[in-house]
């Protein structure tokens, strides 16, 4: 039986094509353990805090990140976030964690093929094939990808510079939004045939419905 | 002759699908007029400054934003940035400006159809048709679009919350990177046929070459 | 009939002598649409947010910025702010917009005479006469002015690097405060005759009463 | 002989009417001792740093703040700043100090009469008479004043939330800029007679010349 | 009778070994006067604000910092904080103040012996003996100390770059925590005999009980 | 043979007692790959950047974090940092990584005993015993510890919210500084016998010499 190789990808933004939006503020107390949003639909930027006197070790704790996740879905990967929703003690601390399991894509020998594209100045592609023990950085806000080019499952852990990174999978956002974007817009932006756009929109419907 | 309608789009991120990455620092002096990067290839986060005693009004000034731009290109729009590269006095001030000219797409009566998609939580699409005098906000970091649905040229002015917004046109970055992203990655991510991916990569080659 | 020239002033601080106070934080969610202050007089730094599931396009939208404003008042200009009070979706985004209409002051041919003064190091004055299509930057926190030196109305649009810029018109704050500042203080600070100070305080009484 | 009373004014902004502009960044090293600007007129936002291995206690040290200053000048007060120019170790630390000596104005019994005016929303004046041992806070960016209403000299120490606060004395900036602001602008803004404006501009000429 | 010398220590972090944690955000309003935490145990990062219309001078004011404090306790010094708990108007302003009274330690002639240690790179010690009128800066986050080496009481005033500095007295936190840290951990970390550790833990019990 | 258990500690601050100091700024470019400090001893807050056109994948990459480290030293643990010194592409990104190997301390069955102490308000101790797959958060700036209570080696990976976290091992800084702190200061602060202090100072001499 083949076992998943362990890789520590040290990225600032996690999934297939995520875009987190920047620096969280510093805390003004020792900590500010998040509470769930109150019933009466009032929210703040970030989260309300518990009474600090009620802080317990469990609010700073999460368990089970070593358990492999199921990757049998259309994109062949599963993201397990560990952010302020899982660890309320992360509130105001500006950092979070993610485990990503990749199904093999059986292309060539090796492990994880990763890369990112610089912004409109030159849209340069920078890539690397990663092996166990490797670390890679995705600069914040740039489109990037990770692709398991090995024959076995792969797993990566990523640290993110936000307590609640706003992850965006480009394909899902563009073709799977709810309701769908007017196909004429996508035909123009992606220079695709209208039928291809409509077909894509029906395929990505699974993502959010 | 039909003239372009004037619209003031008040967006945080400018082009077809741009992603700027967040809050710039506050200045520690009255101002810090940018100088061009020095010959010996040493850079800082942001820009070096001129001697403040040499500050002149022209470093805080730009002219000609009222002149219509040519929109005859594949995507039918032209972006004229006014950022720290055009106004060196913007250095450290965390704000910039953009003029966008849109060719008409002759679909329905009206002017500019704009929208943005929320992040992976639900990928919800929020849209609006804009008329002259309207203002619209694109929350920072979210995928968004602007589409001229009128019969005439349109023009919009946008303010951006960065002195040097890292704009990313999604289609260009994904299909037009240099060198191209391995098509297998895009086949998986976008669920497109490999021939469609290769065709798109050849089309967007113009963007960066 | 003479029509108002259109000028795009790109300033960080808007009115006759405004002082906004610095960098707003980055958002921790996709967006945080502001709600009005709750009845029970509890406030936060910034604003509380609506339930994100209730976000609608109208919260990111403002209409009518193309309509000229009336400028018949003692200072001959009118400021129309478009900030978090008008567009609740601006909350946490750190940017806002303003339209300023100027009555003509019929001095010389031209359009808008603008300038700012550096801080106490040397109190240097930096000025420029602006024409349609021109852009000018006022560095944040410095005293500045705009003066319509043309024969017709003028209009300017300004982008501000705060969602809720704390605008201060120097003359109003100094001579029109409520209650008035002790005249002895102003006599000393401005080296004015006590009768002139008292006269000014009576004139600026209109500003806040 | 009457001795000066000691008052600890704890203000964020120091002189007669200063406006500092906001939050300095956090340091990325243990410290970053400032060096003087290099000969070749290249500057950064803030200051360049010395080699950290060359840090000495003297770079974090200033002496003589207990010595009374001479207050015989037109405005009757003297400000002794202790910022990054005096203590290079303050670079990147976002805080500084100031000593202010006030000549007596012999008005009523008491010590220091201080106040600030809120921004344009209502231009409300908030004041207090301070006695030895009192502490007062001026919210950042608001116009404020301090006035010695006692019969003896007074001294105050102030902490400022910037390593290099951009202090602006309103009267100096408005009437003493170099070159002077066009009197027509000031006539309009302050509703003063043109002769009064010209007289004031000649009086404040001392400030920067 | 011997009187206490007055010293103005200008430090970023206050007590025997305090560690404050960094930059507070800028305010989004003129001010945001703190209110006490509401009954129902909901908190925010920082503090809720009062209705700004109810702002009074007393919220920006503190009295009595000139009164000497009693220093007869085991560590021979007393810290009087003046932060957001004492002056609610400090909320969101990122600065606070402290008075420290030191009992004499009768070692050598002189006044206050201060120092700090750089981080793990080289743990270098930087020290200075301070006299009346001296100012000294402790870089944020570094372990530091102040020790009265004179024969009389001493007093210092310190400005801190946080509205609510999270002060940590190292000895109290390490040996006086509640409940105590497992002695085996401290034996290993400090290379102390287990009996010495247990003895220290009993001595520092006073600090928090 | 017993193998080391794998634990993912998700902490903001890394070693036995580290104190990192706070929020790094957001980048103003796509990235700012660090260069080594220039010969002429001029530094900036953070690091200078390479010409962005020369960016290569290797600047965002680090290899070998999966290799166990030797833990035979007095404190029984080894920290392997992966910060801006190892990955120059981390410059301006505000995040870094660390691998910690712990020798077993053979106390009880289990794995890693961790905890932190709140600041001076109550110096409360919050602890947890961690097992493979567990995640724990140390709030920034608080004194904390990790102790291998198992019979085998343990390894943890930690993400830190700074590109260059200023780590401070309390015992090393207090007793191993160079030159040593005056023993009288430590006798007073830690209530230790002078001989114990001198003995500790000789023991910790290894740390920095």
Automatic annotation (TrEMBL), chains A, B, C, D, E, F:
Q: Which Gene3D superfamilies match?
A: Jelly Rolls (2.60.120.10)
Q: Which InterPro entries match?
A: Cupin_1, Germin, RmlC-like_jellyroll, RmlC_Cupin_sf
Say where the protein is mainly found: secreted
The signal peptide annotation in the UniProt record is 1-22
Compartment annotation: Secreted, Extracellular space, Apoplast
Cysteine disulfide links: 32-49
Function as written in the Swiss-Prot or TrEMBL entry: May play a role in plant defense. Probably has no oxalate oxidase activity even if the active site is conserved.
Q: What's this protein's name?
A: Germin-like protein
